[in-house]
Specification:
single chain; 12 helices; 0% strand; 263 residues; mainly alpha
């Protein structure tokens, strides 16, 4: 199997997303505004002693800013095409093509992600005008980048599993919204998971959502020290292997049990 078709799929997705220039500029502006609002929010919360464990205010502002920049990349969901294609019935035609359909969805999402990754640069420049974020040593940045890549792949497989349920339920939007809300809260994207106390705090760290945002973010701000990088990455890879395997099983079952709405 050659990679050439999937590279072309990614290029077309990049070009497609780049045509919506106004939306791109709006997204950058929205992110900069959210950075400013989050800085004001956390400054007020810290003034009232509502602070996450082991994170001083400056580190918390850094955490919130990096989380927003990560969301530009991680919120892209190329697998939503599964739900649309099942509902329209075009998935049956796609299954007859001499390509890997899961890889096609990944390529399409990756092309969109590349454009959003480009947006990180001007967004970061604008954000730095509003807040001053910490820049850790190169080894920490490299480990953060590796952890984020694993989180990106895990997020893809998690979305893939959710959207593949459309083969049986035909519509998964409501279910995905529930999972999305849970993920936003329990992944560490909005607030650090160190904010949650006791047993509940231990529980949310054990969920797969934490491996998407929380692990790379806590590595970046130094809450996860270098001595714990190995175990943190290992846990991420375990979740990646689990959802990668589950995605393969569900896709094979879905291909055998294809039910197309309307025919």
């Amino acid at each position: 199997m050659t990679a050439a078709p999937y590279i072309e799929f990614a290029k077309k997705a990049f070009a497609r997303e780049a045509t919506y220039r106004l939306e791109v500029l709006t997204e950058v502006g929205s992110l900069v505004l959210r950075v400013y609002l989050l800085r004001m929010l956390w400054t007020a919360l810290y003034a009232n002693n509502a602070a996450p464990l082991n994170l001083p205010l400056h580190s918390m502002i850094t955490y919130a800013t990096i989380a927003l920049l990560m969301s530009l990349v991680l919120e892209v969901d190329g697998t939503r095409l599964i739900r649309e294609k099942v509902r329209e019935g075009t998935i049956a035609t796609d299954l007859m093509k001499p390509i890997s359909i899961p890889l096609y969805f990944f390529s399409d999402g990756f092309g969109q992600t590349l454009l959003h990754a480009v947006l990180v640069l001007p967004s970061l420049a604008c954000a730095l005008l509003l807040v001053h974020i910490d820049v850790p040593p190169p080894a920490t940045i490299a480990t953060f980048a590796l952890s984020m890549l694993v989180g990106y792949a895990l997020n893809f497989f998690l979305n893939f599993v959710m959207n593949s349920i459309a083969f049986w339920a035909l519509e998964t939007f409501a279910m995905q919204m529930i999972v999305r809300w849970a993920s936003d809260l329990l992944s560490g994207q909005i607030i650090p998971l160190t904010f949650f106390p006791g047993i509940f705090g231990s529980l949310v760290f054990a969920l797969p959502f934490a491996a998407i945002y929380s692990t790379p973010l806590l590595i970046y701000v130094g809450v996860i020290p270098p001595s714990a990088w190995g175990i943190s990455l290992f846990i991420q890879l375990l979740w990646l292997a689990f959802f990668g395997g589950l995605s393969m099983l569900i896709w094979r079952a879905a291909a055998r049990h294809l039910v197309v709405q309307g025919g």
